[in-house]
Amino acid sequence: MAAAARSSAGEVLPPALGAVSEPPPLFDGTTRLYICYFCPFAQRAWVTRNCKGLREEIKLVGIDLQDKPAWYKEKVYPRGTVPSLEHDGKVTGESLDLIKYIDSNFEGPALLPQDPAKRQFADELIAYAGAFTKALYSPLTSQVDMSDDTVAALDKIEAALSKFSDGPFFLGQFSLADIAYVTILERVQIYYSHLRNYEIAKGRPNLEKYIEEMNKIEAYTQTKNEPLNLLDMAKRHLKIA
Ligand SMILES: N[C@@H](CCC(=O)N[C@@H](CS)C(=O)NCC(=O)O)C(=O)O
Questions:
Q1: Could you give all domains of the chain from N- to C-terminal order, each with its CATH number?
Q2: pLDDT in tens, 117-156
Q3: Ligand 1 and 65: CB distance under 6 A
Q4: Cα–Cα distance between 30 and 87 in angstroms, integer?
Q5: Are 132 and 126 in contact (CB under 8 A)?
Q6: Which of 25, 48, 142, 188 can bridge 136 by disulfide, Cβ–Cβ 3.0-4.6 Å?
Q7: Pocket lining: 45 vs ligand 1, CB cutoff 6 Å
């Protein structure tokens, strides 16, 4: 069954499509972003679309991953993961590639700076986002205590946040680098607090300020889920403990 429609700061989110839902009319020229409303990777692309003011140009299609429609893998995106973007007659995926693609192929504010030093740091940060995610999730999914790797990964981003002093974000000003990390930080902050009694921002003033400032950005806050809902879903579906 398709889940009920959600609303997010003025935007009515379409109901998530399930196994018995019809697919949208594919390749009719409409640009569609296929997401699951609870997925941190899909959320990266969703935040990027919101930041660039592309609500009209990029239609959201919610996919219910607990009741995934067969047509999603068969007709839309053979890897079967979200996010994916239907644009210009093709479908592409991988969140870290998609955020760059959306930034460079659509109208709206540029989400990467011109400054070469900042650009290079953005590339480094985006390239590290996968390893960061793994370092933070693996103690939870393998149900072990905090590891040195986890602490080191958090310390690394705390240090990265001090590289540019013209603002609280990774490159000083808000950019794609922030979008690469914030959806993961949103979740691990909740999980570590509840499951390891560990506050990721405690003793990390840059990270604390960063989270505070990110929570002022509507294009992001519109995409957030209830913390306890995220915790419950992760316990059930990722078996984190
Ligand atoms: N590396 C991919 C990961 C995407 C991913 O794993 N998404 C999950 C949901 S959070 C998914 O689609 N899983 C497939 C499924 O549950 O059927 C990306 O960054 O886009």
A1: 6-105 (3.40.30.10), 116-238 (1.20.1050.10)
A2: 999 999 999 999 999 999 999 999 999 998 999 999 999 9
A3: yes
A4: 7
A5: no
A6: 188
A7: no
